[in-house]
Write a structure and sequence with these properties.
Layout: E1 6-9, E2 12-15, E3 19-25, H1 26-32, H2 46-52, H3 56-59, E4 61-67
Antiparallel strand pairs: 1-2, 3-4
Length: about 80
């Protein structure tokens, strides 16, 4: 059995295919995900989403899963 492929970002180690759970504004998910030219934010907790976007109680909250599929460009903090 082969070793799982790991991607390291500083102290963070992610296994390819690994799922992470996050939280988004529901309107952003319904209307903007895939369409917003400036992207969408996914937060690590409901508390951090509410702190960043106090109006989220009106817009709703969704829980999402994000999976690492491929690294397109490596991190380069020197450049």
């Amino acid at each position: 059995m082969s070793e799982p492929k790991i991607h390291e970002i500083g102290p963070i180690r992610l296994q390819y295919g690994e799922l992470r759970v996050g939280y988004m504004n529901k309107v952003g998910f319904d209307e903007e995900l895939g369409n917003a030219l400036t992207g969408n934010k996914i937060f690590p907790s409901i508390e951090s989403l509410e702190k960043s976007d106090p109006g989220v109680t009106t817009y709703g909250i969704v829980e999402v899963e994000v999976r690492l599929r491929q690294v397109i460009q490596e991190t380069d903090f020197k450049g």
